[in-house]
Specification:
The chain is α+β, with helices and mostly antiparallel strands and 188 residues long. It has helices spanning 6-19, 32-43, 103-114, 120-135, 149-152, 171-174, 176-187; strands spanning 58-59, 67-78, 84-94, 100-101, 117-118, 139-148, 163-170. It has two domains: 6-43, GTP cyclohydrolase I, N-terminal domain (GTP Cyclohydrolase I, Chain A, domain 1); 53-187, GTP Cyclohydrolase I, domain 2, CATH 3.30.1130.10. It is elongated and about 60 Å long. Bound molecules: guanosine-5'-triphosphate and zinc ion (ZN). Its EC number is 3.5.4.16.
Length: 188
């Protein structure tokens, strides 16, 4: 956890507790700043990570058809309210020239991208663009579905509302049949 100033987070949490009218010295809250600092270091650990690095190792399998890893669960933090949003990412790509990534690396790239103050759109495009840059595939199609606590526990209060974002690159940009094929697999 380099570059994370745990002490500063602790001080900030103490100040927030004071500011909302709590007593940071009451027994139940004594260790809270420390716990929250460790929790923030964990949920923002993607800031020390790079989704692209997971695509440095590739396999030449001669596979030039669709690879889809679906239902990758993720948890992220809305950068506007610093409350969680969470759901699933689905990543499809069509390799080119033998550049096939390890399957787990798609999930690792999602994790590295999600564990930051984020927007759902940016998670979607960052993962797609990392794959384009590193794998130079024929196409990438990333679909992210999530529920935002800032829309459910506060504000507009619409529990159950789901946000779906998609990013298509390469052949998926122009080929609606290929996109629909992926959407069918995702729903099945
Ligand atoms: N596009 C996008 N918007 C998001 C995301 N997460 C949260 N938001 C929105 O960010 C917006 C921030 O709006 P503001 O008007 O600045 O903040 P606010 O007064 O707290 O807004 P309300 O949530 O409507 O109460 C809200 O509409 C949120 O729903 C995201 O991942 N993508
Ligand atoms: Zn929000």
């Amino acid at each position: 956890m380099t570059n994370v100033d745990l002490k500063k987070i602790e001080q900030a949490v103490t100040m927030i507790l004071e500011a909302v009218g709590e007593d940071p010295n009451r027994e139940g809250l004594l260790d809270t700043p420390k716990r929250v600092s460790k929790m923030y270091a964990e949920v923002f650990s993607g800031l020390q990570d790079d989704p692209k690095k997971y695509f440095e190792t590739v396999f030449d399998e001669g596979h030039e058809e669709v690879v889809l890893v679906k239902d990758i669960p993720f948890y992220s933090m809305c950068e506007h309210h610093l409350v969680p949003f969470f759901g699933h990412a689905h990543i499809a790509y069509i390799p080119k020239g033998g550049k096939v990534a390890g399957l787990s690396k798609l999930a690792r790239a999602v994790e590295a991208t999600a564990k930051r103050p984020q927007l759902q759109e940016r998670i979607t495009s960052t993962v797609a663009d990392a794959m384009v840059e590193m794998l130079d595939p024929q196409g990438v199609y990333v679909v992210v579905e999530a529920e935002h606590l800032c829309m459910t526990m506060r504000g507009v209060k619409k529990p159950g509302a789901k946000t779906v974002t998609t990013v298509a690159r390469g052949v998926f940009e122009t080929d609606a049949v290929k996109r629909n094929e992926i959407l069918t697999f995702i729903r099945s």
